[in-house]
Amino acid sequence: MFGKRINELDVSDIQRLIDEGVPESAEVEFKKTLPANKGEDPWLSGEGRAGDKARNEILEEVVAFANAHGGTVVLGIDESSEKPPRADAIIPLPKCVELAERLRMQCRDCIEPQIPLLDAQGVPTAEDGSGVVVIHVPSSRLAPHRHIPSLHCYTRRADRSEKMTMREIQDLTLQVERGLAAIEARFDETSSVFINQIPSYFQEAGVRVQATLIPMSPIRMERVYKNE
Hints:
alpha+beta; 6 helices
């Protein structure tokens, strides 16, 4: 499922997680349900809103992936008792499509700076519209990102999301700045080559067109090969 576009996922992709026993990792996080301080989360009881604890724990995972190498959070998947835990069963969450949209909006409002290209989709696994929520988080060129309610930055270490130290935040900031400088240098380089290579008739006509594409996050080959 991790080689498909998130809006193309269906119940068979979710079932493959269970059949293959996919483990949690530096790029995958499973959650059985929406965490709650007491009892169950308001969304599960039909109140139409997710509680603060559920929001905070899920967004902490999102921030951690954005500050690391990117990853996927899947809600509604029970885990095995192994270390690291593996996908064990589907535990459908009610109104998963609407829940995914709510969480996507909370990511926008409760994470700074906002994470570009973040997406969340509900994948129904039952006729009543219940199912799982898949949140795809790219590795971000705007890192470090901060979880606004807790004022903390998080990163992914193996199969865990942990608070970043001040030194880690500083190092990540410098790393991102160097990456952006490298992109600027690449644009300058291709611009210079283009100007030197354009035919004379384009120069006379005054028409110059240049397109330079530089990936802002890692691109998996299976997403590109034979993919129109």
